[in-house]
Design brief:
about 220 residues, DNA polymerase, domain 1, five-stranded mixed β-sheet, about 30% helix, globular, 2Fe-2S, iron-sulfur
């Protein structure tokens, strides 16, 4: 680029000329942090007055009950559960799909609800932690977590339990993991290494991992 080349026409108000000389004299970092943002704002390229999206109708089957909602199409499934349906068992941890605290089951498969939009699951079956117990009777996985003290602060526990239930179903269907040694078996053996690998997407900041592994083994009918 010639040092007299410009991204704007001469005479344009607030025109800013980026050349090799300006980069050398100003410094690339300072240029990016100061001058260029001002030039973008001056050209009105950032619109902070974008109108909200029109609501769309969504029919969700959550824990066996049908819910008809009108949602902004950008609403995540997690925010739908927590903010629109008061199902706060699914936790918002990192909100980036890295901690697993928001894990729920969709059509029996585990998913990070913070990374998916509610409108993508219209008419699908969603199971949250609130949907496993039958009255006062806990799900076997919930019972195992209690008996093996698989939680401390409890923040990650709902996601851990949902993920563990989904993980056992995946294993029974013959889905291998990264550490599965024998791919010829119809169902991989659930060793401690298998369980830890399959649950690696769920973080426990209290580090109750050994107890969680033992709880999963009990729920799977394995010796602990």
């Amino acid at each position: 680029m010639d040092e007299h080349d410009s991204n704007t026409e001469p005479g344009t108000p607030n025109a800013f000329e980026v050349t090799r000389r300006t980069v050398i004299e100003t410094g690339a970092t300072a240029l990016l942090l100061t001058t260029l943002p001002n030039a973008v704002l001056a050209d009105d390229q950032i619109d902070g007055n974008e109108p909200p999206s029109s609501p769309v109708k969504v029919e969700l089957q959550i824990n066996g009950r049908s819910h008809s909602l009108a949602l902004d199409p950008r609403t995540t499934l997690l925010d739908t559960l927590r903010e629109h349906l008061a199902l706060t068992g699914s936790k918002k941890g990192c909100d980036h799909g890295q901690c697993g605290a928001c894990t729920v089951l969709i059509e029996g498969r585990r998913i990070n609800s913070c990374l998916t939009l509610a409108v993508m699951h219209d008419s699908q079956s969603v199971t949250t932690i609130e949907g496993f117990a039958q009255g006062a009777n806990l799900h076997p996985m919930q019972t195992a977590f209690v008996e093996h003290d698989g939680f401390q602060c409890g923040y990650c526990t709902s996601g851990q339990i949902c993920s563990a239930i989904g993980m056992l179903a995946e294993s029974q269907q013959g889905m291998p993991s990264y550490v599965t040694e024998d791919l010829t078996k119809s169902a991989p053996e659930l060793t401690d290494a298998e369980i830890r690998e399959r649950m690696s997407g769920n973080i426990c900041r209290c580090a109750a991992y050994p107890n969680i592994v033992e709880a999963i083994k009990q729920a799977a009918g394995m010796p602990t």
